[in-house]
Amino acid sequence: MKISLKVNGQPHSADVEPRLLLVDFLRDTLGLTGTKRGCETGECGACTILLNGKAVKSCLTLAVQAEGGEITTVEGLAQDGQLSVLQEAFWENHAVQDGFSTPGLLMAAADLFKRNPRPTEAEVRAALDGNLDRITGYQNVVRAILAAADKLNGVAAQPAEAPPASIMGASIKTKEPPALLRGETQFVGDISFPKQLHAAVLRSAYAHAAIKSIDTSAAAAMPGVARIFTAVDIGAMMPLPVVWVPQDVQSHFPPHPSGIVPGSQPILAKDRVRYVGEQLAVVVAETRQQAFDALDAIKVEYEPLPTVVDAEAALKEGAPQLHEAAPNNLLALASYGDKAVVDEAIGKSEVVVKQRFHNQRMMANTVETRGCVANYDLKTEEYTLWTNVQPLYPVRLLISQYVLGIPYNKLRIVAPFFGESLGSKGYLNAEYPIMLFISRQLGRPVKWVDTREGLARSTTQGRDQVEYMTLAGTKDGRITALSCTAYSNVGAYPVINAPGQPRTLIGRSIPGAYMIPSTFYEVNIVYTNTVPVGPLRGSGRAEATFAIERMIDLYAREIGLDPAEVRRKNMVPPDKFPYDNGVGFTYDSGNYPAALQKALEKMDYANLAARKADARRRGKRLGVGIGSYVAVAGVGPSGVMGKEGLVSGTWGSASVHVQPSGEVLVTTGAQPHGQSQGTTFAQIAAQELGIPVEYVSVHHSDTSSALYYGQGSYGSRSLSVEGTAVQMAVQKIKAKACKFAAYLFKASEEHIKFENGKVFLVFAPDKAVLTLQQVAFMTWLAWDLPEGMDPGLEATAYFNPTNFNFPFGTHIALVEVDEETGKVEVVRYVAVDDFGNVVNPAVVEGQTHGNIALGIGQALYEQVVYDPQGQILTDSYATYALPKASALPTFELDRTVTPSPTNSLGAKGAGDVSNPPVAPAIVNAICDALADLGIKHIDMPVTPEKVWQAMQTAKSEEVSDVSQAI
Asked: How would CATH label the architecture of 2-158?
């Protein structure tokens, strides 16, 4: 069918298939890739556009329905190259992080302004409920929209703040947003090449089954199909490897042909499938639609086998066995501490509190799914993979050495700008090497982008640990012992770094911010017929913090003391640092009571009685909950990680080049995906060199860069480890500049100083002086250099810290529980965090907003649900609940500053560490609201149904007790 319409003021005509979606017409036919494809069901809002002036979801609209219409996409908001008022407001208010959801948010806001030019905050939040954003927490987005509305309506802006005295510590505007706001930035789904083929993956319909046959004949004959690959077609491709293996314990992994590392999942299942979603075949066709059409024609004959989805049940006698190498489905049983000593301490204690917790399974459920474009060059025999993965260099090593068996230098990996990860893009997944293999076989580029359902059934999930906690102490509030026995569900296969999480990250974090004389932790790491589990934002720290913080509240209520006072009594005091927590972590520095006190004062904790009484008059129950935390961050001490079983170095690296023009290029091994390292690393370099930050550019995300190796971004390590490497490289630049100046001025180096972008002789600072640009140009010319000095002004540095760093803080939540419905509303949220020295506070605040939103999601909404047959019941945004903008309060943030002694920046991690205290703060607040009913605990997610049922049960038991007394 032929359609004619206007897009961003320009006329277009085209012949389209009747079933072609408008989002695909805009993206694939017109090349307007600012409009994103996120869910295919209209729930994420990434595809929002204006059609005839009204917002529509272009993934739910056929292209033919736009006939004769006028469309505005994000590319049409800017005029004559200038950002619109709305786009500028997003930039100025730090409302852009990863940017994938940003176009949809902008278009939703543009639609709101047409309907309501002066919206309130509540109206803005309600208008954004059709747009999901997993990373910003919405707060800065809301603030940006309100600021834009004010400007458009002539409201005078607040006076600008005075320029910062120092680049470091300044909330300068980040460099990345303009292209994102204009829809120009290319994500992996936006990349296309000539003669490109498209791939679709056939996934298992059963959680556990023998594969009797796979018939691809009908599918292979369908239009556009180039070839179909099953396990018999991929030759000697090795299974995925595992690189974090628990040490000093017996562990049971599937084998790997290398004999160097253990194995994991096969690239394509051949004889047996072990979870719904496991890869069976890949269809490659001329178009994406043709590839997906052909999937339905593949016939698979299964022989169903018994399933088990629960970790505790998987260990019981008679449970279905997943791997021959793992008797009783046990990957490993690991422990820390002396059980006998702890049991004795518990037996002698005045008070003992016990509770079972389930830290439920979650999905990152990012709006941008995983994807890749693979290309093999026949002439050079080189492979290139463009993909949205965090650890580029490690994945390059693993694919080349342990999957494809090719030379390391024949594989290049490039990460385009990519959307939210929340940890889910930190893995080696089977789709990446298989697409490289297929590209070589077919001699053409191959593109694969997952679907929403595919994400739910194949992308690594998180959490899913059961903990049996016992806390003992005195009647006056001193904790004497802590014991935890845990069952950690690792899923059907161990992903590359998953086995280390339940042991190291949870086990060594279990005492939290407290001095506990005796601690014991043991964990059963167990296989089940579910999607593999691995670290998800806040991983390990979140599970441990939830357990200890809930136990603190249960203990406080048992002995009748205020939970804040119990925390204050047991926190590690400032004069005890560095502090050995007894199970393997040495906390570097901190003042935990100060952060607690600041949060209590900010919440007006001592004066909540009147608010509680007012809430009861309104049919609500008000509760307050505290979540204090300390979280390991700054993964970098390679020797320590080696002892923990990680087969990798974790040091940071950076290369700095001063161009002959005086401009500075920083190359880093970090891989930003919303952390704004292109800005913060530029701030570090600019501060050290004393030059404007605009003179510094940051290169990353390409393994063909100047760096020998880079680690990537994960576990809140980038700034404190990779950023320190940047600082060290710049210091080498300064040292070389000083040496050159000393030679030129015929002076001793001790009389040369580098300051404010200049190097000079201290005795004649106005005469014997060179700018950084002059030094760079002269050393580039190399006409007259000191003996032994190489030309150019460049340096590479490596940083391998001796210890982790340990950010900390206290969060306090105020919730209202509806008496009639059980609905929980978060009415206030205060967070006081300590990330050490901070380079760009606005960047850190944005990350904190996202962490709080995710924590609220875990506490109240999110859960991956399987039925007993292993079928996942929450494989879309319609079935997997997420917090939306209208459900979140305005977060009230503050910080204390305790520099870390482990790095020269004094920085501590910030990316994911403020997530762990959120869920316990919310659940503690709910339990506080229900305390008078005798309700002690409700497992997450604390849904209205669970709360209502708990209240009805408690009230009926109360009536029963009264009747028995009568």
From this structure: Roll (3.10)
